[in-house]
Amino acid sequence: MWNRIEECLKDESGIGVVEIILILVVLIGLVIIFKTQLTELVQTIFNKITSESGKI
Fold first, then answer.
1. Rounded to an integer, what is the distance from CA 42 to the centroid of its chain?
2. What pTM was estimated for this model as a whole?
3. Count of alpha carbons within 13 Å of 42, Cβ hemisphere only?
4. CA 26, 41, 46, 43 torsion: positive or negative?
């Protein structure tokens, strides 16, 4: 039984999944922190696209 526990602790196949989950958690945290700034930025970009699309 101890050999099985040691194998599980040494197994690194799940490390990639943990890294992806941590990256997603950090990205979601950044979006929550900078939500208002991101919303203003996206609105500014879309307003500029809309206003300049009439020139074409």
1. 17
2. 0.54
3. 7
4. positive
